[in-house]
């Protein structure tokens, strides 16, 4: 198999810069189905994206989504995910192809969980995400260093590493 270059992936998949960091493109929204009602308004039943971290943009900064998200690893180097669950527990998961070393091909993150991601080495890591109910920007909160440190002082190191301010 010929491994595509980072630029080939960005161009072929039509990826654009994402507010969290990295690159993305929405690839699906269930607009052929009736939308569902949520407390925040009507949402697609599901949406899906490609998401790419690169050596120049290696961080997906701390953010919280209301919806559940299933992540699928595709290509490139492993991506480390940091999750702060609603009970304050920190979990670290490495997504990658080396399942014998404990890397995960799939990761489910329930809504209400803080999440950051990091490409620790390599040129890129490519995943996709399925989000249900479907993603809308108003359902995402970008983490600020001050708020996260106030809420989770026991996790200062990863909070400091993966916030912009």
From TrEMBL:
Family matches, as CDD domains: cupin_YML079wp
Lineage: Bacteria, Pseudomonadati, Pseudomonadota, Gammaproteobacteria, Cellvibrionales
Matches recorded under SUPFAM superfamilies: RmlC-like cupins
Name assigned to this protein: Cupin
Domain (DUF985) ranges: 7-142
